[in-house]
Design brief:
single chain
Length: about 90
């Protein structure tokens, strides 16, 4: 008998929860529908976009060439890497 009472109680609780959930859903759908009717259909909602990131400040090409020359002299850059980087800066 205690098992039957527990099952019956669970069924009542589940049924009540379902009824309440359905009622809340219908009420919310009604609110959304009334809000849509109140808003004019001709005006689209404005969309906010993030502003573009500011461009990185360009360094002076002469300063960049000096840095490359120092890297080349110290052995960090090979002759080919130095030539490629220099051509890229001067282009």
């Amino acid at each position: 008998m205690p098992l039957m009472r527990t099952m019956a109680r669970t069924a009542v609780i589940a049924g009540t929860a379902t009824t309440v959930s359905n009622r809340v859903s219908r009420r919310q759908q009604g609110r959304w529908a009334s809000q849509e009717q109140q808003q004019p259909a001709e005006q689209p909602q404005p969309q906010a976009y993030a502003p573009p990131a500011p461009a990185a400040p360009e360094t002076d090409p002469i300063e960049r060439l000096k840095e490359l020359g120092q890297l080349h002299e110290s052995g960090v850059l090979t002759d080919q890497e130095f030539a490629d980087a220099k051509a890229k800066i001067l282009a």
